[in-house]
Amino acid sequence: MMVDFLYRPEHFEMNAPFNEQGERAIDTASYLREATGVISMERKRHGRAKVWLVAFILVACALVALVVYVRNGQRNGSTDVTKITYAMPVTVAAIPAYVAAEKGFWTDEGLDVRPEMFSAGRLALDALLAQNAEVMSVSETPLMHAILQGNKIYIVATVTDHQEVKFIGRRDKGIADPKDLRGKRIATLPGTNSDYFMYEFLKASGMDIGDVKVTNLSPPDMVTALVQGNIDGYFAWEPHVSYARKQLGDNVVVFGPSELYHGRHCVAMNQDFVRAHPEVVEKLIRGLVRAEEYVKAHPEESMAIVAKRTGMEVDALKALWPEYKVRVGLDKDLTQILDREGKWARGINKSPEPLPDWRQFLYPDAIGRVRGVPVNLEP
Amino acid sequence: MINESFKRRLFWIGQSKIVRGTSAFVAVIVLWEFLSSLRLYNTLLFPGPRRIAMAFSDMFVSGEWFGDLRDSGVRYSLGFVLGSVIGVGLGTLTGRIPVLRDTLGVLLNYMRSTPSVALIPLVIVWFGIGEEAKVFVVAWGVTFPVWVNTHSGIAEVEKEYVWAARSLGAEGSDLYWEVYLPRAVPFVIAGTRIAIATGFFSLAAAEMAGAFGGVAFRIFHSHQMFRTDKMMVGILTIGALGVLCDRLFVSLTGWLLPWWRGESQLDK
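ok -> structure tokens follow
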């Protein structure tokens, strides 16, 4: 039965030599030898398939075990909590974080903080959420998106108040007033605070997103595109606005955020970590508070530190410095900012879901202990 | 007790190309869904197949997916055709003319190491942020694999073939159409298949700057907005498009060149 199934005699017959009568001469002994060989080969093939299947199952099990092991290790806090990674974006707003790292204020608190630089705050946030970093800082907008999508994070402090997002447009393209943006080609980086500002700016000017031609560009590309005349203007944050202004001189018009946008550079951590290690949060904030004092007492040295981290020229930084107010704290204004931006995000995603209670994502205990004054987040 | 005929049927199902081809995908999806359902990792950063399927369904119904597919499809098609034509043309020139091989060939070899994504700031300067810029970036990614392979194919044409053709009176363009090009076809096909994939790498780079639609734009945009489910739909769509284009190309070459037997084991 199996011989018939796996080994077909006609194959053997076809290859058999001709005898003198011109017929195929089948040698029964050879036939059996060959048939046995083929069956053995088939069995080997089946055996190999089984080995592969078992190997696949073993690898899958090993993968699951590895994930469980790593996760348990993280949950139990088996790693040395005094050694932590701080995911830092390249931005002027991160002034106290740069200063605390550079001046060793966290080392004085007994923490071994390893700064990891990221080109964008959104990527630094990925590092935090993937538990590759214990702490990170970014402006409030990416954190708001992360919270709306269900991520369990705490904002443990804000370190800088700023209004760094702006619009810059070319005068020779007919932009002199906010209303002139109608029909113009405008660049933005979706999901950022400058994107939020764009929507608010257009609304305040009696327009909506359909009234402008929006394109997506990274801030450095926006500068090039504006200088080249490929776009008429863009919404971005500093230093990308001042870079274009430097190149285009009087041919640009800049609209600041005025009352439409107030930003905060926030320090964020995973909720599990904060609950497990509140003392680490307190030490981190102590380091940041010392950095705040240092920045106020030594602005020139602080500028040099920020210039080193961001790659900006000190002169350019000096011009922008007054726009950043270093203040380590946590207040109810942040909940209002998050609420406004949350409504915007829900609107553009056409999501009917209600907004969360933002206070559940703020951790005021550590800053309260460090400052010696309880933080009031009640509306 | 499983009877013999059932065993045989199972055996032949196992031998089926479709079953074998999809088995790895199915196994990965099942394992992935299993791991995500256990919540052993942050599923908001890397959602499971079920959530991705729901996001796809939303994008499909709203027309967002089709819009992205259309935008990317136009950019890719134009860039691919342009890059392939340029690649074959340049490969023919550098493969046949020693002076060009030693001059232009060296320059092209230098240029082909430059990844498309590194060119974006320059492309904005050269072409702006319109569709032509994106088509150029895709064409850049396609040109070089096609060029290298066409060059090799043309350069390796045996002299005996050329002598034989010449002795029969073939000259100039006849030689190209009757000897060089047919002999180089296997190389051109191999280069074009590589270019199908490199074209998609370039499309991703092109749509991450200056676009407001397209599959790669959606990946970038969804990442910014923390919609990792939609981001995964974009990633999987690009992968599927790559496979689809490759299969279409293989079928097309099989239809146009029925004598062509150069396909690899992966195609069988």
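Chain A touches chain B through 41 residues (CB under 8 Å).
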